[in-house]
């Protein structure tokens, strides 16, 4: 009797213990799910549509997840006045290799932006960077780490900026560091395939959760208004998105930083327009990656400088050389045909 009581108590404790464990697992699972990015609706307009990033780029991005680039502008120093219009730029980068694959022409690099001009891609800090013939007045230099396909890194420390002066101070090109600042990144230049990546960098923009917590506080929420060839849509996610629907030839793209009421936040560079060109069937590396004609395996050298693609050898063909023999008189035998190819 006592033995049965002990067994019953043990069984009850075991059931209670297992039940507690299952409840604990369920709670932890729900907590983890709540930390994931909430689902959102893809952007769709009359002619434009948001689509998933190309599979090869998604695969290559996994190799870059290990890096947290730390970028610094050493020179020109912030708030410095220069007596002449040619400025030497010195940058520093940590936890991110800079290189360009010699065959594919892409690799990890920096995007260097003077004022609101299109960026200059920097693949090496060993070569001098010189800004020549700058106009007198205020100038701002911005720089951030970029993937081989020109997507900006958005981790803390991946961006830096400095404002300096040539001969004297003026009002233009001088962002207010207390206000949100929008840096246009992509699209830029000529594209040979769709979808085309849209990307930007944000400074001093609050987290949506913080901005929406109290409607009466001074923390202002934000949106980015994107206009492509006259069609507009709003973006409230700080991440690169891929858009399909560009027309062949010249396209224009505008990015504007808006507050929660839909008003433009007036700061230098918060309203930028770029012209780009779309020419289908481009044969550059990025176009082939986007179309899926170049696999992540064959393109992995653009994210890993030590990677060598395992390409199977091409069979060799040995031409038959008929020396001192008149071809018109020579008969081809089965044994001759077998010697035309080398396995």
3D architecture notes:
The chain is of the alpha+beta class. It has one domain: Immunoglobulins (Immunoglobulin-like, Sandwich). The chain is 19% helix and 29% strand. The chain has six helices and 17 strands. Strands 3-9-8-5-6 form a five-stranded mixed beta sheet, with no helix packed on it. Strands 11-17-16-13-14 form a five-stranded mixed beta sheet, with no helix packed on it. Residues 13-38, 318-325 and 327-343 have low confidence and may be disordered.
Brief digest:
The protein has 343 residues and is an alpha+beta fold.
List the helices and strands and how they pair.
Layout: H1 2-35, E1 49-51, H2 55-64, E2 70-75, E3 81-82, E4 87-94, E5 109-114, E6 120-122, E7 129-131, E8 137-146, E9 159-166, E10 181-186, E11 189-191, E12 196-203, H3 208-211, E13 222-228, E14 231-235, E15 241-244, E16 249-259, E17 271-278, H4 285-291, H5 296-299, H6 334-338
Parallel strand pairs: 3-9, 11-17
Antiparallel strand pairs: 1-15, 2-4, 4-7, 5-6, 5-8, 8-9, 10-12, 12-15, 13-14, 13-16, 16-17
